[in-house]
Amino acid sequence: MKTNITVVMFSQVFPPEKGGNASRIGDLYKYLTKFGVKVIVVSAVETYPFGTFPRESRLIKKEGDIIRLFTYQPIKKDASSIERVLYYTIFPVLANIWLVFNRKHSDVILITSPPPQMYVVALIGKLLRKKVIVDIRDLFLDVSVSLGFIKRGSIVERVFRFLESKALQTANAVTLVTPKIRRQLVEEYGIDPTKCYVVPNGVDLETFKCEKSKRKPQMVYTGYFGHAQDFDTFLEGYALVEEKDRIPLILAGSGENLKETLKKAEKLGLSKWVSYIGMLSRKEVVNLLCSSTIGVAPIKADESLKYAIPSKIYEYLACGLPFIGVGVGEIERIAEESKVGCVGRTPEEIAECIRKLLNSNFEKLRVQALRYVKRFSRESSAKRFIKVLQKVHGGDNNEKHEN
Predict the structure, then answer these.
(1) Which domain CATH number covers 95?
(2) Are residues 304 and 353 in the same domain?
(3) What is the DSSP secondary structure assignment for residue 360, as one 8-state letter?
(4) Which domain holds residue 260?
């Protein structure tokens, strides 16, 4: 699959930073490089999760094909709104400057959103007559408005909507992680559906795999504790399960709502059942999943989040774990398709999901999970992305394709 294309990927986050966004772009870089694509990554200095990396004063830092540009680095995990704005704005501004001075170094540029400030990089790329691919990981604006972080109808929302609309309409191709995001953006902005390609989120099956391991009877959550996660509903459902039928819940990760989650567990009398073990490396996450029984994926049952499939679900499946989810929409679909998930919207439904899975045949669920997740490997996603690159680079954007 050797190709002579050079692509510059602009991303706010990149490993060793943590989170689904960083792992997606990190694995894409890994496999594109493996398949012979020349890739230059332009990212912000290591910052996320906030407060976990040393402060960086250099304007630019190069590590081979990885270029890190300065941005504001919040010191505290619970960064203020102003700190977040600085973090998400300074890097895109410097990325635009870098692009202008290095415009001869690329055949195709890829920008990945969120944050929506990255759309300016895509528009500058078009002004420089570059082939541009916009990668949409989630509906950031819709969620931010629905959860109250951006005021509906405000100047901020209107500016971001304008940038998103122009970037998507002028891009040579748009890649999206789910068909629902594709349909929604086509309807909302009138973009050409033939240039929209679904490249699913997924999991690196080379990393997330279990050798022979002894599993403990425990549920596990690894990831971000943010405003889109609905731990209240999950914990309330967990509390409805009689103690004789419970298994422990292990939490790992970080986020602004972590303290509230632990306080909620204490308030519900679950302290002896819920353990928080801190931030983990990717290897430690794999070890934890391979020694657990059930994965947990709570997403708010909000209309703006119906498109969402948490990346951790693919990690659970790759490690042979069935999962319990909170939410509506795509998370319900993947539970039904895989036949190894149970999703509820109320505490009562969550309690029933816990009881149901605990009475299931875990070996059968493990086999089904591994069989299902094979179609979502990050390697196969990279191969699909290379096809998009080749069409864009060759100017063939109107060829019909499957999604």
Answers:
(1) 3.40.50.2000
(2) yes
(3) S
(4) 219-375
